[in-house]
Design a protein that fits this description.
The chain has 250 residues and is mainly α. It is 72% helix and 0% strand. It has 13 helices and no strands. The chain has helices at 4-15, 20-31, 38-70, 72-84, 87-90, 101-119, 135-140, 142-162, 169-180, 184-188, 192-200, 206-226, 228-239. Helix 3 (38-70) packs across helix 6 (101-119). It is found in: Membrane.
Length: 250
Amino acid sequence: LQDEETRKDYDYMLDHPEEYYRHYYHYYSRRLAPKVDVTIVILVTVCAISVFQFFSWWSSYNEAINYLASVPKYRIQATEIARQQGLLNKTKEKGKNRRSKEEIREEEEEIIKDIIKNKIDIKGGYQKPKIYDILLFQILLAPFYWCKYIAWYCWWIYCFTIKGQEYGVEEKLYIIRRYMKMSQSQFDSLEDHQKETFLERQLWIRENYEVYKREQEEELKKKMAMDPRWKRYRRWMKNEGPGRLTFIDD
């Protein structure tokens, strides 16, 4: 009874002995309460999630590199660069340093993958992981990001709302991305010619974007109408339909 909260429960029990269910609840809630500090549990959980995130992103990045290394277009370019830099000649050593064909092939494969890593900028969900993107650093840097965002937002209001300046290319693309409801990584993964099309059609203007959106929806409907898989699905829905649950009286 040295604990203040426990002492209050005990005094309340003496004053209200008829509320025995409440006394049982408080007694077992304190007896069975976890003894570990909640802060430690949260910290360990965040660290575990961060480690899982980092290795998961590295696995996705390596999968993307392995895929690009198997695409003839990128493999031929990487092989040509390796030959120009004399990297493939080093793998074919003679004399005592001569190695088996399997070892040479593995080393050549690693050289090609390294060139692809250095020459190709992979964006989107398969981009090279950065340690600052994991959950732990995002939480630690949250105050900095908030201050940065507030400063940027004030700058935006001052330049384009108060002073009425014209949007630059980056500002136009930012507005288009917000209209499309895409994240920065998703928008960065788009091809350059797509972004140029967005700018040519002036999609940062709301009315132009609404027209573009309706066109894309109509085009998608046409593709779905011509897709044989959707035709089979619609035919099945018309003839068979989804499963039905009925109750039949015997």
